[in-house]
Backbone:
């Protein structure tokens, strides 16, 4: 995929260079036409004004081609940015380039902050290639709420099919006028769901007839030498009608202003879903859900976009007077309100379909850009998870793969000991991230993976709260209680990931409290890992017999330098490095008097 992206990017850059030259040339031609027109006006004067029609027509025609060249350049730049971002993801240079999704970060979620689902360098930033807010919302929801296995399997099929649709992803990237997120779904949903005042067809017909009659009478009055009583009366009538309907028109204009942004992107996505040929049942179901109800969804949204554009056209200085004479604003405002009354109730469903399609396309791009990742096998039964050569997708070539086996015929609890910076917390995040991706229907960075429907409960990054008067230790206690409650409510389904459990208390209380929590979780049928550098906790697996095991990460000193290989090994760690790290930081740790 890196080679294909590179080839497409090179071709696009050549095309952009040609378009920029054409843009400059057409701009110079327009200036030359203006110069010719001014010369004709100077040489021929007003008597030869008819000849000015020639340069005027040429100016208009070249202007149209110039406008098309500008649009083509903007589109090419959007697609170039799309492939540059894709190459950055493939080369693991994507952190800081994408969207963080901070607005979707929930409070007190059982794993969102612990697994870095949102924020700079997050899983959301890696996955979010969606073009609409609806797509972002769907992707964020999938990260936070695991899908049932049947749904996840259906998504896997769709993602596999979409992974090969490089051209489709390019077309989506080219939609709209910018590379940023388009279509504010919440705003559009609120507008579509708001109460409407039905527009009488007879009112719209009457307004059209009044405007047409007024214009015809004005033309008749202008072309003849008759009195202007009739046009004047009609104009007065129009003014009274416009004043009577002004509050309603103003309300429509104000309501549609924000929801109308980037409707062409929404129409393009709907048209794509309607017209693409899919073999996957899940994608076919999405496609079929847009059918029915009269006109295609894409045509309906395009019609709304056209009505909004026509309403806005009256703000053009050159068109303002004819628009007023034709009741232009009033007619098109009522046309928009009539559209909402007729089709607005279908917008939430259309946005849901577009959001899901975009999320699937984003996961398809993720799969295409990481062809060595695998789709996990999703099985039913008591809690278990197995993985071969599992690594974190955000670490690139620096990520070290390890194997995992929890539940089934393997122990349900693994106590992972190890020194500071040896990789314990990263291993917990690697496992949690893989489970999140698996339950979304996405591929994971592993050679193979199998898991049951697991609900994650993590205590990896727990912070104190000044405003709520909570210490870090008490915050951790509350999180652990929530995880234990989840395990009791959903026995045999929970995956717990506990980092340096109860590190904020003395070693005696810590050992007793940690052992009680681990034992309780294992007894509910949950599976999980607990990391620690307190070797007293490594004795817990001995008391849980076959239900628990020890593993560790180690460090080594080579030429007075501390090194880590981040390889998970069986058993309890035999070394520690806290004093060495203090010494390396320049802190004298020798006891007084030594």
Residues:
């Amino acid at each position: 995929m890196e080679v294909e992206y590179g080839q497409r990017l090179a071709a696009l850059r050549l095309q952009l260079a040609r378009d920029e030259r054409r843009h400059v040339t057409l701009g110079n031609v327009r200036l030359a036409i203006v110069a010719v027109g001014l010369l004709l006006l100077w040489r021929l004067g007003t008597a030869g004004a008819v000849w000015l029609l020639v340069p005027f027509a040429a100016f208009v025609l070249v202007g149209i081609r110039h406008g098309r060249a500008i649009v083509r350049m903007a589109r090419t730049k959007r697609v170039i940015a799309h492939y540059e971002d894709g190459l950055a993801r493939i080369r693991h240079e994507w952190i800081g380039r994408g969207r963080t999704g901070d607005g979707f970060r929930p409070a007190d979620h059982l794993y969102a902050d612990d697994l870095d689902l949102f924020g700079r360098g997050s899983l959301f930033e890696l996955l979010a290639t969606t073009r609409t807010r609806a797509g972002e919302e769907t992707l964020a929801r999938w990260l936070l709420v695991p899908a049932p296995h049947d749904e996840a399997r259906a998504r896997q099929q769709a993602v596999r099919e979409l992974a090969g649709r490089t051209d489709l992803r390019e077309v989506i990237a080219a939609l709209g006028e910018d590379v940023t997120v388009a279509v504010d779904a919440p705003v559009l949903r609120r507008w579509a769901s708001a109460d409407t005042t039905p527009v009488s067809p007879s009112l719209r017909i009457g307004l059209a007839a009044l405007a047409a009659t007024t214009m015809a009478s004005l033309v008749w009055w202008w072309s003849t030498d008759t009195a202007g009583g009739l046009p004047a009366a009609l104009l007065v009538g129009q003014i009274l009608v416009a004043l009577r309907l002004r509050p309603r028109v103003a309300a429509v204009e104000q309501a549609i202003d924000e929801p109308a942004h980037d409707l062409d992107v929404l129409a393009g996505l709907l048209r794509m879903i309607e017209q693409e040929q899919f073999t996957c049942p899940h994608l076919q179901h999405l496609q079929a859900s847009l059918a029915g109800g009269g006109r295609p969804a894409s045509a309906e949204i395009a019609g709304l976009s056209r009505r909004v554009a026509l309403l806005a056209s009256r703000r053009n200085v050159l068109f303002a007077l004819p628009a007023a004479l034709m009741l232009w604003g009033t007619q098109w405002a009522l046309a928009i309100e009539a559209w909402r009354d007729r089709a607005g109730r279908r917008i939430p469903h259309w946005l849901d379909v577009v959001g899901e399609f975009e999320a699937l396309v984003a996961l398809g791009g993720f799969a295409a850009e990481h062809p060595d990742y695998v789709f996990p096998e999703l099985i039913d039964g008591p809690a278990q998870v197995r993985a071969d050569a599992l690594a974190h997708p955000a670490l690139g070539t620096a990520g070290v793969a390890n194997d995992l086996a929890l539940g089934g015929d393997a122990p349900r609890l693994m106590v992972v000991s190890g020194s500071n910076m040896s990789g314990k917390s990263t291993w917990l995040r690697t496992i949690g991230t893989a489970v999140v991706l698996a339950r979304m229907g996405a591929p994971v960075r592993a050679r193979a993976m199998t898991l049951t429907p697991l609900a994650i409960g993590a205590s990896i990054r727990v912070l104190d709260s000044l405003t709520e008067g909570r210490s870090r230790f008490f915050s951790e206690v509350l999180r652990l209680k929530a995880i234990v409650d989840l395990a009791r409510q959903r026995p045999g389904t929970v995956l717990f990931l506990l980092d340096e459990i109860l590190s904020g208390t003395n070693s005696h209380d810590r050992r007793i409290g940690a052992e009680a929590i681990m034992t309780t979780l294992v007894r509910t049928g949950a599976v999980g890992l607990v990391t620690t550098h307190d070797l007293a906790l490594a004795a817990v697996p001995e008391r849980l017999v076959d239900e628990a095991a020890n593993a560790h990460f180690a460090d080594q000193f080579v030429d007075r330098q501390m090194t880590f290989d981040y390889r998970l090994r069986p058993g309890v760690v035999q070394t520690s490095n806290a004093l060495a790290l203090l010494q390396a930081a320049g802190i004298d740790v020798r006891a007084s008097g030594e």
Observations:
- The chain has a mean pLDDT of 88.
- Residues 296 and 585 are 66 Å apart (CA to CA).
- The first helix runs from residue 2 to 44.
- Residues 377-585 form a domain with the Rossmann fold fold (CATH 3.40.50.300).
